[in-house]
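Sample log: NUDIX hydrolase.
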Amino acid sequence: MNFEEKTVKTNHIFSGKIIQLQVDDVLLPNGEMSKRELIKHPGAVAIIAMTENNKLVMVKQYRKPLEKTLVEIPAGKLEEGESPEITALRELEEETGYTTNHLQYITSFYTSPGFADEIIYVYFTDELTLLEEKKQLDEDEFVELMTISLDDAEELIQSQDIHDAKTVFAIQYLKAKGWK
């Protein structure tokens, strides 16, 4: 069976700094019409960064949509024309004060394919160097740097201080690769 939905009409609702919202009228495979509310996003990166003493580099920050503070791996939005690897290095430097000469691409995945096209590219490094001069965060970004063990990270999952898919993925990835 062909599951494709053909877009008949697009109504652009909102265009902001991070997302665009649109409502599409679509022709379903059974010939009926329906509406789809869609969020368009430029994509993002996330970095699994391990220190030389096997600690995971994390950031703590407030997430307004959830009205709570989360502990997450460093991550950020792709800028127009910027490759995911360049974005990953920039975000690592801005959010953590570390840099690296070795970023390994791990995978990418869609965050919420039912309504958004956001894709996250995940990178790994265990070759960190502390920057001599820390880079500036975005003017509306406030983060606290943390380095934690995988055991501590698993406890933070249980307490829901870590409660986002990319960070849970990172911890499971490291466990599967034999990190302790």
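Observation: The longest strand covers residues 6-15.
Observation: The two ends are 46 Å apart (CA to CA).
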